[in-house]
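Troubleshooting log. The previous structure file for this entry was overwritten by mistake, so regenerating from the original sequence record. Sequence copied from the archived sheet and checked twice against the printout by T.R.
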Amino acid sequence: MWTGNRTAFRILGLEIGKDHRKNWWESIDIAEGFRITLTPARHFSGRLLNRNISLWTSFVLKTPTKNLFLGGDSGYGNHFTEIGEKYGPFDLAVMECGQYNEKWPYIHTLPDQLIGEVKELKAKNFIPVHHSKFKLAQHAWFEPVELAAKNAEDHNQPITLPVIGEKVDLDQLENVTWKKWWEEYW
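Regenerated output below.
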């Protein structure tokens, strides 16, 4: 298990008695042809007074047909380049893009950093997440996804923009034209 996250492994149904403790750059084979590798992320961890006692991580999920990056929360850092060099290119990167503030650059990506992270990961396509659901920062609810779409378009970077909860066919990413669904609500 990644350090300090025993409950998450219970939820995943992994055997608790078996030692699954892992650190960054270590892998777990979860089924035939399916491997999860823990990779760095830059964020604080914990709740209330228990801070930074567990490891914050991103993941590489390698399947028989896809190579995916699951970013979690992270501020910008050189770990994106290192992950891209070790495990890229990626078919899809799931990238945190919301709840940012210039005072929090170490825990959440700023809008002008997102495309750089995607490029450093060597991701063919990305899906922005961690936006439009709750308010932590002072930006408008739609701003993170709006800026992600604009910056992707400006840099000719393929982007996947499902409505929250919409299913995405990973085999059809390049064949879908995504609408800017948030514009219907503001």
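The mean pLDDT is 87. Archived copy saved in two places this time.
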